[in-house]
FAD-dependent urate hydroxylase (Calidithermus terrae), 410 residues
Amino acid sequence: MMVRKVLIIGSGFAGTALALFLKRAGFDPEIYEARSALGVDAGAFLYLAPNGVKVLKELGLDRPLEQDGFPATGMVFYNQKGRRIGELDNRSDLERYGARGQVLKRAQIFRVLQGEVARQGIPVHYGRRLEGLEVLGQEGVVARFAGGTSAEGEVLVGADGINSSTRRIILPQSPGPRYTGLVDTGGFTFLPSLRAHSGPQHMIFGHKAFFGYVVRPSGEVYWFSNVPWAREPTREELKAIAPAVWKQRLLELHAGDPAPVVEIIRSTEAEGLGKWPLRDMPSLPAWHKGPVCLVGDAAHATSPSAGQGASLALEDAAVLAKCLRDIRGLEPALAAFQRLRKGRVEQVVRQSRRNGDLKIPHPVMGRVRDLLMPVFLRAAERAAQPIYGYTVDWEAPTPAPAVDGAELRV
Ligand SMILES: Cc1cc2nc3c(=O)[nH]c(=O)nc-3n(C[C@H](O)[C@H](O)[C@H](O)COP(=O)(O)OP(=O)(O)OC[C@H]3O[C@@H](n4cnc5c(N)ncnc54)[C@H](O)[C@@H]3O)c2cc1C
């Protein structure tokens, strides 16, 4: 069967980038997104690492992103007393890895990706929530959406995030997301007095919660707090906390932490504070079944403590499009995609979880952490090299997997 029409479920990082790469490779992608066109822009900010920026560069989208975002020159870590306990220097990332990581608001990055999808005339159907699938033997697959509509294609890619419906449908026995013990919150404020702090991301191991902030040269502050919360709160529980009550709780949690933590929280509009339980995905037995495949968070969500989820989703998009372009037969192409990606991404998931565990305050371990921070950071720098250094060579053909277990390269 010649694959032409690819149904993509979800218009996040993986879905939009996959559509752009597939279109370039001569396929007919169509995106089906559960939310309304307006709803997709919601969210806070993220760090897009050099490996993710390189994928966008391949798509010709790095320039608009650099206009919206700004590079962080590194990370400086402080203990609860405000003592500097270590730092990472990212200033030579361009020379070392071929791109500089960018700090971006989600709304900005989606505007760029979705704008390019629209410019290239790729159909995006909003308000289509996938609810069911029907595999038509060798003929392809039918996607069924809430409300009774459907769509048919030769392949369906579930780029529908950590709560993936596609995953639940094709792998009903597979494990679901795992909670990390942290709830993320944060927002934006404007404090011209902090202009002198611009450059690196500042990371503070507070008395009761971890706090991070980065300042644009204009004085706009992007910040987050990782709040320890033993049992995973439900969406309803989090929604029931009024914004002013949540802000007050954060002020209490961070009372006594080094300046300017409290000042940043106090100056932020309570209504703008999001709340997200942080989770990741355990290893799945498979990422594909018949003509259906998972990408991005749907297959391998990572907690944000390695700053890699979006970059890995973008890498997936490029690699899957290459496999479909270069490898004869759908099943070998999807198998090659999984083989090329699984080891790499699952290593990042584990690393990110370890980073997150360090953020949970502990009276004894806190002191050990302070002492060992330079050692941790040297190890983190070494671990970052293959992660940031990864480049998908779009032009290079993807070899078909010759022997089971043989190593493939992109
Ligand atoms: C608080 C927080 C901070 C983060 N910070 C960073 C960071 O600094 N750096 C980084 O690289 N990563 C970060 N991440 C991770 C990053 O956001 C994800 O890894 C990334 O969004 C994954 O992209 P994706 O396209 O796979 O999924 P998503 O971006 O989740 O997109 C999935 C899309 O599918 C749609 N969808 C869902 N279900 C259906 C359905 N049934 N039918 C149709 N459509 C559906 C959704 O509406 C959504 O648009 C963070 C995550 C969180 C929660």
User: Anything to note?
Assistant: The pocket of flavin-adenine dinucleotide is lined by residues 9-15, 32-35, 40, 46-48, 128-130, 159-161, 165, 184, 276, 296-297, 304, 307-311, 313 (CB under 6 Å). The chain is about 35% helix and 25% strand. Residues 403-410 have pLDDT under 50 and may be disordered. The CA atoms of residues 143 and 266 lie 47 Å apart.
